[in-house]
Amino acid sequence: MSPRWEPNPNIRRGRTVTYTLHAHLVFTPKYRRGPFTDEILRRCEEIMRDVCADFETELVEFNGERDHVHLLVHYPPKVAISRLVGSLKGVSARRLRQEFPAHIRKYLRGDHFWSPSYFAASCGGPPLSIIKEYIENQKRPA
């Protein structure tokens, strides 16, 4: 009996594309002065889930510490990571400042909540060495 084939839930399909794109993102607040409490992290996650939904992306995982947050997002190829990051940081900064003004003011000076820098890494799937080997083995016979 052959094993039953089950579709991979991470592989998505569009009209003209089949994809599975994941990115690990890390954001730090300006001056890396830890403004995050458990309550603020929970609210930050809710805000970022809403932004991801607007971009037709999925926030697969979210967590953080006092001075940074980690996100794992599953996104379609039509989404530019830089635009997604800009929106995630912009919307969350505005809402967190509105909802926690006294607390945020204690930790950050000026108008900026997030550092302008961020970390982004593509992730998921097989290691690059396996992909290289697979492509190498696709050579046509002479």
UniProtKB/TrEMBL annotation:
GO biological process, one term: DNA transposition
InterPro entries per UniProt: Transposase_17, Transposase_17_sf
Residue stretches in coiled coil: none
Molecular function via GO: DNA binding; transposase activity
Pfam family, one: Y1_Tnp
Signal peptide interval: none
Ranges for domain Transposase IS200-like: 18-138
Protein name from the UniProt record: IS200/IS605 family transposase
